[in-house]
Design brief:
Blueprint lengths: L1 E5 L5 H16 L3 E5 L7 H17 L1 H13 L8 H7 L2 H10 L4 E4 L2 H12 L6 E5 L16 E4 L5 H6 L7 E3 L7 H4 L3 H8 L6 E6 L8 H7 L9 E6 L4 H11 L5 E4 L5 H7 L2 E4 L3 H10 L3 E3 L6 H11 L4 E2 L3 H12 L2 H14 L4 H13 L1
Parallel strand pairs: 1-2, 1-3, 3-4, 4-5, 5-6, 7-8, 7-10, 8-9, 10-11, 11-12
Length: 371
């Protein structure tokens, strides 16, 4: 099978989902390619599209919330959004790509790519069998403008929401957001700590701002300073691609033995399996990765929009805690999860709702489509 997976670098989650699906397909002997369709124009455009989103979130999450609401408002209008028209401009380049590269099935982990394929289909261009893979626990704006063959939705509880947004029920496939196999079948805690050079008997919290290094990380570190007073407590801070944040934190905590500062990492499965608690934004991918690794989780600083819904989904099912005031409520939430009873209860809820097999389920679907 020749599979093409289209993604977009507006946050790391879409890419992570794409590579997780590619991994599952490759392990079965299929050829899976991951492509940012904007790169067909040039890498400069691909980086500009992703970079604009990232900078908006880093500088003003509230502004992104306003933009998200505007996108949501288009659902009540009888016309296509400007976003659809802009993405339609990619149709001819994708048509040329399909003419030159055999493709049996095309997967989309971003709604922009789904809009491109929809435009192609509506204008009589040949499109392989197509699948939209949701990467959040809500039906994101502009999904209703798309018309692919299948929609992988990460929970049966979201079925009605997708139908209300115009997705035909017969096209909906209940699955999970795809994550790499190592999150559920990776190293043991002892093995992961040894591989990462971490102390075997210390307690570790991961504090993450996602791939963008967004959220109130400096406030969170301050709030967790009392937790770090015992010698066996450590905080690993992941700053993502936010170089300014990393440099700033290095000035304040670079000499600390209890605060470990990192930029981006390609070994997130090992870090999650090595830690005791995860603190971070409720991105669709990072939330699913934590649940797949069975790590007690505390959400802070959700980006208004998708992450608000992700937070509600996980907290409402007992798979995570959430705090509104990082300064005043984060430490009590950590103290709560230090109780093995509370942590074990959360892990059971994660096991109940998240199998970590989303990528394998998508591979099953692709094989069925192409059989």
């Amino acid at each position: 099978m020749e599979a093409l997976i289209l993604t977009c670098s507006t946050g790391g989650g879409h890419n992570a989902a794409a590579y997780a699906a590619a991994e599952a397909l490759s392990l079965r002997g299929h050829n899976a390619r991951v492509l940012d369709p904007y790169s067909l124009v040039g890498e400069k455009l691909a980086k500009a599209v992703g970079g604009t989103y990232v900078r908006m979130v880093q500088i003003s999450p509230k502004l992104f919330g306003v933009v998200y609401k505007l996108g949501d408002a288009y659902r009540r209008l009888p016309v296509k959004s400007p976003v659809y028209a802009i993405n339609g401009g990619m149709a001819r380049r994708l048509e040329k790509y399909f003419d030159e590269n055999k493709t049996d099935v095309v997967l989309c982990t971003h709604v922009f790519a789904a809009e491109m394929l929809t435009y192609m289909k509506k204008h009589g261009m040949n499109v392989p069998k197509s699948v939209f893979i949701a990467t959040d626990y809500t039906c994101v704006p502009f999904t209703e403008e798309t018309g692919l063959d299948y929609y992988v939705v990460p929970s049966r509880d979201l079925n009605d929401e997708y139908i209300r947004c115009g997705v035909p029920e017969e096209k909906i496939v209940i699955g999970e957001i795809p994550v790499k196999r190592a999150f559920r079948e990776g190293l043991s805690k002892t093995e992961a700590r040894k591989a990462l050079g971490l102390a075997p008997k210390s307690e570790y919290i991961i504090l993450s701002g996602g791939s963008m290094g967004a959220g109130k990380l400096r406030t969170a570190i301050k709030a967790l300073e009392p937790y770090l007073e015992p010698e066996d407590k450590r905080l690993i801070v992941l700053c993502g691609n936010n170089g300014g944040l990393y440099e700033s934190l290095c000035e304040s905590y670079g000499e600390s033995e209890r605060v470990i500062l990192l930029q981006s990492t390609n070994d997130m499965p090992s870090y999650l399996r090595a830690c005791d608690i995860f603190v971070g934004k409720p991105g669709g991918l990072s939330s699913t990765e934590c649940a797949s690794a069975r790590v007690p989780t505390v959400f802070i600083s959700p980006i208004p929009g998708c992450e608000t819904y992700n937070c509600k989904f996980f907290v409402g099912r007992g798979m995570a805690l959430s705090v509104r005031s990082v300064k005043h409520r984060l430490l009590p939430a950590i103290r709560r999860l230090e109780s093995e009873t509370a942590a074990a209860k959360m892990r059971r809820q994660q096991e109940k709702y998240i199998t970590g097999l989303g990528a394998e389920e998508i591979a099953d679907l692709c094989e069925k489509i192409c059989d």
